[in-house]
Structure formats: structure tokens, C-alpha cells
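Run log, item B.
One chain of 148 residues. Sequence copied directly from the ordering sheet:
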Amino acid sequence: MEQPSYRRRRKPKPGRISRITVPDGVSPHVKLVFAEMQRQSLTYGQVAERSGVLLPTLKAWRHKNAPGLDSLGAVLDSLGWTFVPVPREEVLPEDMRAGLAEIAERYGMSMPETIQGLISVITGIHDGLSEPVASEPSEPPTEPAAAA
């Protein structure tokens, strides 16, 4: 005789990697925070502890409050991101734009790619990469003639 349905063993449901969901109706910065928490499988408590932002504050970003720059920067930093404002091309001084345009043309890059590269170097994103190997000079250096 078959057992009643309530006594059958149920197969366990596949567990979610993270219970964090990305909220709708919030700024892109806040979406980034929650998407990264989800991707890294971090809990609110872990992010709050790492960043120094209070747990209720972090949770309130989903519905009520917009984060301040300090707390948003701290949370993004704890997730491995750097929060950097990047100027648009039109607000750069003309001489700087001209110099960047030369660099972009020399390397076959667009102006946004050039500005992005400049920002990544300035913010230290490339710190820790190996230094380029210096090439040997094509001619030996000339020594000054000895005074007679």
C-alpha cells in the first residue's frame, strides 16, 4: 500500500546562492551595490561590518533612503569597487581635450576610452601591475671628451 502524500519524502529545493535581490526604482549606484552583494553572495551583515555602514541604513536604501556619498563610497569600497566621478569631455579645459585627442588618435582609441584609461591610471587601478621592461639603448652613451 502506498503511503499518503504528506508522508512522502520531498526532494530538497535547490538553494539560492544569495537571498539578496536587486531592487527596482532605485539609483544605478544602489542597484550596483545590491547586484554586487548578490554576485559575491554577501549578507547585509557582512557588508555592514566591512563598510562601517549601519545595517538598518543599508537595508533602507532598498525602499526609503538614498545613500550619501560617504556611505555609498564605503560600501562600494568594501565590495572591491572605487567610486570616482568622471568628467564628461565637454567640461574638460580645451588644452586638455586637445592633448587627450592626440593620445586617442595615436592609439586608435575613442575619447571616452582615453578618459577612462586616464582615470584608471590616476585612481591607481593599475597599481601592482608589473613595470614595463626597459629596452636597451640602441647606441651606447657618448662620454664627454677629457679636458686636456
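Observations after the first pass:
- Residues 53 and 71 are 6 Å apart (CA to CA).
- The chain has a mean pLDDT of 79.
Flagged for discussion on Thursday.
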